[in-house]
């Protein structure tokens, strides 16, 4: 069995100093491939550095809505330069987050989001999308600026109605440890209804540690527990969930399956 953590932050200050330890742990839990995701200049550079040092790490770089105000022309040029690296497999995490009041205003977030969708389209890269309290705007923007290489909705927590709409756009849908939380019934329902061909798993470590590790610092190894939760809710063997989600992640990130 092999698992793919399609969205993780080993570049985060909480994990960054013990990357070798976390990679060993990942190995123990059959997490063979990882996409380390950046969100601003520093975290993007760290994601790239890690990807260059470790064959199983792939970099996803881009500007998170929280950092959208800093995504200026020189940062755009830097991003276009950085995505030329063969270790960059997607642009992300990008999107909209209307939850936090301190975030840039929607107009600023939307501009950075659209600019990065256009870069992804131009350079034939998929995108990894963060959306919070912004379903309608995220959907409208993706509808007008689709990315042919692939779109991944990360840590999906929307309703079945939104799930259907994003699936109809061709999106992949990724589930984090939230799916294992007892009260997250809407997320569990979504996880049951994503076609196996569009399903991905992630930890979003160091955040959102799944049951039975909830409350602890999350790490890529715990993709195993996310897979287990999804397998339980879908009433499928764990290895089937692992097999499909691994294949899907390799497909969208265009990584050759090392089987
Ligand atoms: Zn994340």
TrEMBL record:
A divalent metal cation 2 binds at residues 130, 154. InterPro entries: DNase_TatD-rel_CS (IPR018228), Metal_Hydrolase (IPR032466), TatD-like (IPR001130), TatD/YcfH-like (IPR015991). Keywords: Hydrolase, Metal-binding. The keyword Metal-binding applies. A divalent metal cation 1 binds at residues 7, 9, 93, 204. Gene3D superfamilies: Metal-dependent hydrolases. This is TatD family hydrolase. It comes from Bombilactobacillus mellifer.
């Amino acid at each position: 069995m092999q698992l793919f953590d399609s969205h993780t932050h080993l570049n985060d200050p909480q994990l960054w100093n013990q990357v070798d330890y976390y990679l060993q742990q990942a190995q123990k839990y059959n997490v063979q491939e990882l996409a380390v995701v950046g969100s601003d200049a520093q975290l993007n550079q760290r994601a790239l550095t890690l990807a260059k040092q470790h064959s199983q790490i792939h970099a996803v770089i881009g500007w998170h809505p929280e950092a959208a105000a800093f995504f200026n022309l020189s940062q755009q040029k830097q991003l276009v330069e950085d995505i030329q690296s063969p270790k960059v497999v997607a642009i992300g995490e990008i999107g909209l987050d209307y939850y936090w009041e301190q975030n840039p205003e929607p107009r600023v977030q939307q501009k950075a989001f659209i600019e990065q969708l256009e870069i992804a389209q131009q350079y034939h890269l998929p995108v990894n999308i963060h959306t919070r309290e912004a379903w309608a705007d995220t959907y409208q923007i993706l509808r007008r600026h689709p990315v042919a290489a692939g779109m991944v909705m990360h840590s999906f927590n929307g309703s079945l109605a939104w799930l259907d709409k994003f699936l109809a756009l061709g999106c992949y849908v990724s589930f984090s440890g939230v799916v294992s939380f007892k009260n997250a019934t809407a997320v569990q329902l979504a996880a049951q209804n994503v076609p196996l061909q569009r399903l991905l798993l992630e930890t979003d470590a160091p955040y959102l540690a799944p049951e039975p590790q909830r409350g602890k610092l999350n790490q890529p190894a715990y993709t195993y527990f996310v897979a287990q939760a999804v397998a339980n809710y879908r009433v499928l063997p764990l290895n089937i969930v692992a097999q499909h989600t691994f294949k899907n992640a390799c497909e969208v990130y265009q990584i050759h399956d090392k089987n």
